[in-house]
């Protein structure tokens, strides 16, 4: 079975470390872990992740704009938003961009493994 490579994009280093530990425990490989949308766009081509996990609320290039730019250059990468902001408006905006899945950080532990399994099936 092929190992799925994940790019983590969140401005909180502690959250990225926690998420990386969780994902490694589930058998995923962390392609890169970056703190901004700009950094994500810089490493996207060289790291070639299968999945990009993005926060929405980041300084500079926010997660939705980052997702839009990623989708423009890579139609195949799976985009997953993980955010504290789980309003219908954010979900609709993410879906309109082509985000594949959306998980609220408050439900991360029970939902993330299931959502990733569905994305990577």
From TrEMBL:
The modification 4-aspartylphosphate is found at residue 55. Keywords: Hydrolase, Phosphoprotein, Protease. CDD domains: REC_NarL-like (cd17535). InterPro entries: Bact_response_regulator (IPR050595), CheY-like_superfamily (IPR011006), NreC/VraR/RcsB-like_REC (IPR058245), Sig_transdc_resp-reg_receiver (IPR001789). Residues 5-120 form the Response regulatory domain. Signal peptide: none annotated. PANTHER family: RESPONSE REGULATORY DOMAIN-CONTAINING PROTEIN, STRESS RESPONSE REGULATOR PROTEIN 1. This is Protease production enhancer protein. It comes from Accumulibacter regalis. The gene is degU.
């Amino acid at each position: 079975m092929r190992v799925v490579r994940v790019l983590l994009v969140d401005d909180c280093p502690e959250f990225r470390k926690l998420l990386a530990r969780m994902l490694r425990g589930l058998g995923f490989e962390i392609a890169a872990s970056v703190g901004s949308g700009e950094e994500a766009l810089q490493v996207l081509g060289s790291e070639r992740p299968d999945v990009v996990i993005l926060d929405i609320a980041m300084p500079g290039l926010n997660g939705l704009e980052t997702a839009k730019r990623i989708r423009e250059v890579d139609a195949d990468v799976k985009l997953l938003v993980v955010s504290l902001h789980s309003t219908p408006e954010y979900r609709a905006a993410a879906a309109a961009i082509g985000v594949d899945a959306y998980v609220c950080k408050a439900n991360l532990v029970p939902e993330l493994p299931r959502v990733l399994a569905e994305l990577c099936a």
